[in-house]
From TrEMBL:
PANTHER family: DNA PRIMASE. The lineage of its organism: Bacteria, Bacillati, Actinomycetota, Actinomycetes, Micrococcales. It comes from Microbacterium profundi. This is DNA primase. Keywords: DNA replication, DNA-binding, DNA-directed RNA polymerase, Magnesium, Metal-binding, Nucleotidyltransferase, Primosome, Transcription, Transferase, Zinc, Zinc-finger. RNA polymerase that catalyzes the synthesis of short RNA molecules used as primers for DNA polymerase during DNA replication.
């Protein structure tokens, strides 16, 4: 495959704000001068340790150690090749790439082709919704309160009833049957290859960045022997356990709401109804139960680092809906946000509620929500006759484990009282049973894994632990070197380069910081965009992680101008330290050399020059 010219790779990166790219997947907020932070997309965490510095085009997680530039972020998140990452960003900013052989962009055969195929299919389906055959589909939408504008906003389309209408349209655009199979758009059977979606309304399923990765299709005709809803099968770009329908439309309002709220509904039309009614943070799963992977996605988009957010689950009032709510309850503790359940009057789903009672009734669901724990308790009690002593005791034993799961020491006593009121029992009796249930649950919890036995010395090579900021000694010398290096990596491009070189001309006293200094001094152009990131990557192990932390840690200043001034002052202090060290060495040498000798006179002249130079830096 032809290689993209390095100049173009650098140019695309310099024109791309990494904060915008990361911000499409992670809710970012200010973390000091020039720094943003959010929940890490590479590991599950409760509080944010993932930092992004748009000015240097770099990200770093202080929790798991992942770091890199905008290209590595896309490669990790979307599992694309380096070339595909560059081409995707170039297309985003409208930049024409050049290849080393002088040719035009090659035809990729990886993920980018699957994205392109799904995008082309979505356009085809949207166009078909206007056809005469699609009258049944338009009628279906109209009967549910969705006009042409609503269909266009959500990209709803129509798959014609024939066996190969979509396939012919896309192969005419250059897509191969193998690519369409890999994208899940066609199926292979005894009749050969044929359209997967036929005679159905089709909703495009997009990832958080807005790229179409699959479809959900609702049957319209009685002679359709398939399921009511048919989704794209698992592909290398469509993983249903990680996808939430409508998140691309909802993410902006989710991250900026006060409170930050996510409304989880059960179907595509429910998402449409909620958004049209004003609940623009509604999302839905795609043919699977709400699970742990969905939570990870939502927490990153919400910036779920405290209990101020809300996650509201709306479920049908039928038995299936109740079970779905309880399944969601089992994952409740993965959120920092408060979780609620909202069930509409008469068990209506949001789509039917909007049809029968209007937009205000859909918005009113938020006023009728109840805490998830309260819902789970009531659900557990519903199977008992609370008019009898036996029923009360059985209900207490059934519900006590739920209350025992509440880890918040302020919430749990309140729910003990709620349970006591529901049962008509003494709160003390309820508390005793809850504590017993808690002990029983602890006894049945999986045993902690015991640490592995020590490996005998010499039997296996010992990995050297990476050096981190937290492991540096707390001494004045190390603090100065650490601050100067942080300033050099983050704001060195704004400081006179001769001053930087003068500050860093003497080896540092701490070996880890010295390893980083060597790379910074060797950098050919410290004013070039991305130089600091290249320097970090060039630092030898086990010091590279420390270099990344120095580049990404919030700089102690109010603004960019203050950070540059502070960096300049740190460099000045480094120079003064170097001068003082040299002076002390010369004073020792003077004692060992005759005063009237050439060497003695040279030493005294150098001491005089040092004093003049020191005074200049002291007064600056």
């Amino acid at each position: 495959m032809p290689r993209i010219r390095q100049a173009d790779v650098d140019e695309v990166k310099s024109r791309t704000n990494i904060g915008d790219i990361v911000g499409e997947r992670v809710a970012l907020k200010s973390a000091g001068v020039g720094s943003l932070k959010g929940l890490c997309p590479f590991h599950d965490e409760k509080s944010p340790s993932f930092h992004v510095r748009p000015q240097v085009g770099y990200y770093h997680c202080f929790g798991c150690g992942e770091s890199g530039d905008v290209y590595s972020f896309l490669r990790e998140m979307d599992h694309v090749s380096f070339t595909e990452a560059v081409e995707r960003l170039a297309g985003r900013i409208g930049y024409t790439l050049h290849y080393e052989d002088g040719g035009s962009a090659p035809e990729n055969s990886g993920r980018s082709r699957l994205y392109a195929a799904n995008t082309a299919a979505a356009e085809f389906f949207r166009g078909q919704l206007l056809s005469a055959e699609a009258e049944t589909g338009r009628k279906f939408l109209g009967e549910r309160g969705f006009d042409a504008g609503a269909a266009a906003h959500f990209g709803v389309g129509y798959a014609p009833r024939g066996w190969e209408g979509m396939m012919k349209a896309l192969t005419a655009q250059g897509f191969t049957r193998d690519e369409l199979l890999a994208a899940g758009l066609v199926s292979q059977g005894q009749r050969g290859v044929y359209d997967r979606f036929r005679g159905r309304l089709v909703w495009p399923i997009r990832d958080v960045t807005g790229q179409t990765i699959g479809f959900g299709a609702r049957k319209l005709y009685d002679d359709d022997q398939g399921p009511k809803y048919l989704n794209t099968p698992e592909t290398i770009i469509y993983k249903k356990a990680q996808v939430l329908y409508g998140l691309d439309l909802a993410k902006r309002d989710i991250s900026r709401g006060d409170p930050r709220r996510v409304v989880v509904v059960e179907g595509y039309t429910d998402v449409m109804a909620c958004h049209l009614a004003g609940l623009t943070t509604a999302v839905a799963t795609c043919g699977t139960a709400f699970g742990a992977e969905h939570i990870k996605v939502l927490r990153r988009v919400m910036g779920d680092d405290n209990a101020s957010g809300e996650v509201v689950f709306t479920f049908d009032g039928d038995e299936a809906g109740q079970k779905a709510a309880l399944r969601a309850f089992t994952e409740d503790d993965r959120f920092n946000a408060q979780t609620f359940v909202a069930v509409a009057p008469n068990g209506l789903d949001p789509c039917d509620l909007r049809l029968q009672r209007g937009d205000a009734a859909v918005r009113g669901l938020m006023d009728a929500k109840v805490p998830m724990f309260e819902f789970a308790i009531d659900r557990r009690l519903s199977g008992f006759d609370l008019a009898t002593v036996e029923g009360q005791v059985g209900a207490l034993r059934a519900a006590a484990p739920i209350v025992a799961e509440i880890r918040d020491r302020l919430l749990r006593p309140g729910y003990e009282r709620v349970l006591a009121r529901r049962l008509g029992m003494d709160p003390t009796e309820v508390r005793v049973e809850v504590e017993r249930a808690g002990r029983a649950g602890a006894n049945h919890a999986p045993a902690r894994r015991e640490p592995a036995e020590a490996v005998p010395a010499g039997s296996e090579p010992t990995a050297v632990a990476p050096v981190t900021l937290a492991s540096l000694p707390r001494t004045a010398d190390v603090a100065l070197e650490r601050g100067a290096m942080m300033g050099a990596l983050q704001y060195g491009h704004q400081i006179d380069q001769a001053t930087l070189a003068r500050a860093f001309e003497v080896p540092f006293r701490h070996p880890a910081l010295e390893a980083i200094r060597e790379v910074v001094v060797a950098a050919s152009d410290r004013t070039r965009v991305g130089w600091a990131m290249d320097a970090v990557n060039a630092v030898r192990e086990p010091y590279r992680l420390l270099a990344g932390e120095l580049l990404m840690s919030p700089f102690p200043a109010r603004d960019e101008e203050g950070a540059a001034r502070s960096t300049a002052d740190l460099f000045r202090r480094m120079i003064l330290r170097n001068l003082d060290r040299e002076k002390n060495e010369l004073l020792g040498a003077v004692q060992r050399v005759p005063a009237d000798s050439d060497g003695g006179r040279a030493l005294r002249m150098r001491l005089r020059d040092l004093d003049i130079e020191r005074q200049r830096f002291t007064e600056s």
